[in-house]
Design a protein that fits this description.
Oligomer: single chain
Radius of gyration: 20 Å
Number of helices: 7
Strand order of the largest sheet: 3-2-1-4-5-6
Structural class: alpha/beta
CATH class of one domain: Alpha Beta
Order of helices and strands: EHHHHEHEEHEEH
Distance between the termini: 63 Å
Largest sheet: 6 strands, parallel
Shape: globular
CATH topology of one domain: Rossmann fold
Length: 189
């Protein structure tokens, strides 16, 4: 009986070589929300953007965090309103091979799978979700000073919003950015 010899076959999976690793928040960075309108619809209270002096709306309004959680739970599934330049920049980073990792409080309202689906449904480029911000990143972009301070990121970009303007940054570890144009200057793309 003849022997059949097959050539050696090596299956090669492409090794992903990422460019820059970027950890990024959604709300207040990629997407904007009319917080005064949301508060008005939920609580019936008029609130100006300037009166939002802290990242935690529970502290601003003097209500239990559970009420804020309920309010946000009703809002997070809606259609996003992108901050000018955010989506185009994310698409550019994706095409350059940058690793885009989402770090958002939305996880507590949507769960990781729900957030993943929402990102895909709304065509927001991303490569992963970091639930607790535990990885090492070249850049972290957020509107929450406390989230920025808690991550292991080389460059921490604080996206200016009314609720973080009073941040003292006593450790001088943040670079403040006011727009996606500023972000592109810092990160590239």
């Amino acid at each position: 009986m003849p022997t059949v010899v097959y050539p050696e076959v090596t299956i090669m999976w492409p090794k992903m070589e990422w460019g820059k690793r970027i950890l990024i928040d959604i709300d207040g960075v990629i997407c904007e929300y009319d917080f005064p309108k949301i508060v008005k619809n939920f609580f019936g209270v008029d609130l100006s953007s300037q009166s939002i002096f802290a990242h935690g709306l529970a502290d601003v309004l003097g209500v239990a965090p559970a009420l804020i959680n309920t309010m946000f739970k009703e809002q997070v599934y809606g259609k996003p309103h992108f901050i000018e330049g955010s989506l185009k920049t994310l698409e550019s980073w994706e095409s350059r091979g940058y690793e885009i990792v989402i770090f958002s409080n939305r996880v507590k309202y949507m769960g990781e799978m729900g957030l993943d689906k929402w990102l895909v449904d709304n065509q927001i480029p991303f490569n992963g979700i970091d639930v607790i911000g535990s990885g090492k990143y070249d850049y972290h972009i957020d509107d929450s000073p406390s989230k920025l301070a808690a991550t292991d990121s080389h460059t921490k970009l604080l996206y200016t919003q009314p609720w973080n303007k009073r941040c003292l940054d006593i450790n001088e570890c943040f670079t403040r950015v006011d727009s996606w144009q500023d972000i592109r200057k810092e990160v590239g793309g």
